[in-house]
């Protein structure tokens, strides 16, 4: 058959999803649950970045690191965990966690919910139309009666510095899938990927140098989060350098050299660039529907692309919150909106906190950085709340003074902050940093998304003696 005749084969669906990461999978599932037919297109592995090169492998690498650090702070236990981590066992566990980079399990799940998988690269080829080029070069056209959802995620950005291309740098993909521990590792970037991977590889045996061009780590969180994580990384033996910009990177055999703006040269075996993300929209046929290839896709609160009544962009690709759980939330909202519009529901619930509005993206995004100590935040930081024009007060508490913290870890170090909206007396943001705080975070997310008045929070009594008692201390501090 000629290429033209291949391309003429058209399969109709109600909804066509491009990208079978966690977000695309959830959106297709929601469409099916609403009685719509759905196809999903995937060019790599069903499960996406999260399952194979991001959340899952990184957390599998970090869990033993944090568990060992916790155990070392419990009297009577420390001597049992004094030695090195068994790096081979940790890497093997990570491999199990990624299903050895095979997607059979997730393909089975798609089948079980009745979503048809088309393997290949999907491109928009006009309104409500996606052309898929399969691994064998064959093409098939998918037409969508109601909606196309772009869920193609993001990829790592490596800065275009002299020598970088030939330096064979790691991105988050190599940092989460490497099968051996480099003796020396340079990590460039002090965001979430940078600090998590610095924490993991330092504990697994690398000598890590973390180069941060700004003044501190985790710049999107409250400043004390980056400070406490930097202290811990240094105590673990990492060389953390702030205000350090890499100007070139060169490889000579097994050695890579990073040159800083002050002329310092640092040698290592590998260099990881953890310097942010770009949308996977450059080869997506956006030009066929009047959009700019390579751009982030801006959407309304139902995740519908600005100016297109049939096109949705959900998850990382819309840049609202580059987090799996938040993308899946958007998928639930967008799936419900697509179904409602398909059923010609006269009025969608697009008001604040309505069923068809991803309101939490603006107000109550939770995030845990799985370092030691953990850094967990929901909603706005003080700086973000102030720049959004809210009249706020930041209330701080030293987590070491909570009875449950002392029991959790000897010499507990940590801090909590809540941001109170003084006009409405509700919380706009909460940050906890310290061992064991990640599981506290959902209480904060509920308080923020629920807009629970401070007066009512006073009646939410935390159990004694848990770390959660920090809630009582924060409220007491606020009330004076
Ligand atoms: C190292 C690391 C650790 C992370 N840890 C966490 C964490 O602990 N918690 C958390 O919430 N978030 C974490 N994230 C963020 C999380 O990975 C992303 O937010 C999430 O994967 C986004 O999901 P998605 O479905 O939008 O995109 P992706 O997971 O990127 O999936 C997109 C899918 O689309 C496919 N695709 C792209 N273009 C096409 C095309 N043209 N045709 C067909 N298929 C296509 C891709 O192959 C991919 O499978 C982490 C990120 C990194 C890099
Ligand atoms: N536990 C989690 O929830 C988790 C873990 C990892 C990643 N993620 C998500 O994945 C996304 C990507 O993470 P990330 O760390 O790659 O991005 P990021 O945007 O969080 O951090 C990138 C950092 O690199 C710096 N940077 C950019 N260009 C640079 C350059 N040329 N030289 C030096 N520094 C430079 C930036 O200033 C920034 O601090 C984030 O939005 C994050 O939310 C989440």
Automatic annotation (TrEMBL):
* Residue numbers binding FAD: 59, 122, 152-154, 316
Pfam families according to UniProt: Pyr_redox_2, Pyr_redox_dim
Name the needed cofactors.
Answer: FAD
Please tell me the species this chain comes from.
Streptomyces silvensis
Positions of NAD(+) binding: 189-196, 276
* Any one GO MF annotation of this record: flavin adenine dinucleotide binding
Q: What domain of life does the native source organism fall in?
A: Bacteria
- All copies of the Pyridine nucleotide-disulphide oxidoreductase dimerisation domain together span 365-471
| GO BP annotation list | 2-oxoglutarate metabolic process
**Any idea where the FAD/NAD(P)-binding domain is?**
13-326
Would you identify the family this protein belongs to, as annotated?
Belongs to the class-I pyridine nucleotide-disulfide oxidoreductase family.
Classification from the root reads: Bacteria, Bacillati, Actinomycetota, Actinomycetes, Kitasatosporales
Q: Which UniProt keywords apply?
A: FAD, Flavoprotein, NAD, Nucleotide-binding
Q: Does the keyword Transcription apply?
A: no
SUPFAM superfamilies, A to Z: FAD/NAD(P)-binding domain, FAD/NAD-linked reductases, dimerisation (C-terminal) domain
What does the cofactor field's note say?
Answer: Binds 1 FAD per subunit.
Name it.
Pyridine nucleotide-disulfide oxidoreductase
Q: Could you tell me which cysteines form disulfide bridges?
A: 50-55
């Amino acid at each position: 058959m000629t290429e033209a005749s291949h391309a003429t084969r058209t399969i109709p669906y109600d909804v066509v999803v491009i990208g079978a990461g966690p977000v695309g999978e959830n959106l297709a599932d929601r469409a099916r649950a609403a009685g719509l037919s759905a196809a999903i297109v995937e060019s790599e592995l069903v499960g996406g970045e999260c399952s194979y090169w991001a959340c899952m492998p990184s957390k599998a690498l970090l869990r033993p690191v944090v568990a060992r650090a916790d155990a070392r702070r419990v009297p009577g236990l420390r001597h049992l965990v004094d030695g090195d981590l068994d790096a081979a066992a940790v890497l093997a566990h990570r491999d199990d966690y990624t299903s050895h980079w095979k997607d059979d399990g997730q393909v089975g799940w798609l089948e079980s919910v009745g979503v048809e998988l088309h393997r290949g690269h999907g491109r928009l080829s006009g309104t409500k139309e996606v052309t898929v080029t399969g691994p064998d070069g064959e093409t098939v056209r998918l037409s969508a009666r109601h909606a196309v959802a772009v869920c193609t995620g993001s990829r790592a950005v490596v800065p275009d510095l002299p020598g970088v291309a030939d330096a064979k740098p790691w991105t988050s993909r190599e940092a989460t899938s490497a099968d051996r521990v480099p003796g020396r590792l340079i990590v460039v970037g002090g965001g979430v990927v940078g600090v998590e991977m610095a924490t993991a590889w330092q504990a697994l045996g690398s000598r890590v140098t973390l180069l941060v061009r700004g003044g501190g780590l985790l710049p999107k969180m409250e400043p004390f989060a980056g400070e406490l994580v930097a202290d811990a990384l240094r105590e673990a033996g990492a060389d953390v350098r702030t205000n350090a910009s890499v100007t070139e990177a060169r490889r000579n055999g097994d050695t890579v050299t990073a040159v800083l703006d002050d002329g310092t040269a640092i040698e290592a075996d590998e260099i990881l660039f953890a310097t942010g993300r770009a949308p996977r929209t450059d080869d997506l046929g956006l030009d066929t529907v009047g959009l700019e290839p390579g751009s982030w896709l801006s959407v309304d609160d139902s995740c519908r692309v600005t100016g297109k009544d049939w096109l949705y962009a959900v998850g990382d690709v819309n840049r609202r919150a580059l987090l799996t759980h938040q993308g899946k939330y958007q998928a639930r909202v967008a799936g419900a909106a697509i179904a409602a519009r398909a059923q010609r529901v006269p009025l969608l619930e697009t008001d604040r906190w309505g069923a068809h509005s991803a309101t939490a993206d603006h107000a109550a995004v939770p995030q845990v950085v799985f370092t030691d100590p953990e850094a967990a935040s929901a909603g706005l930081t003080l700086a973000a709340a102030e720049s959004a024009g809210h009249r706020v007060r930041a209330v701080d508490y030293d987590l070491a003074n909570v009875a449950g913290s002392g029991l959790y870890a000897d010499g507990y170090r940590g801090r909590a902050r809540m941001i109170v909206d003084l006009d409405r007396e509700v919380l706009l943001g909460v940050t906890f940093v310290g061992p064991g705080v990640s599981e506290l975070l959902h209480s904060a997310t509920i308080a923020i998304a629920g807009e629970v008045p401070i007066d009512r929070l006073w009646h939410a009594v935390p159990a004694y003696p848990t770390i959660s008692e920090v809630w009582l201390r924060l409220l007491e501090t606020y009330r004076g």
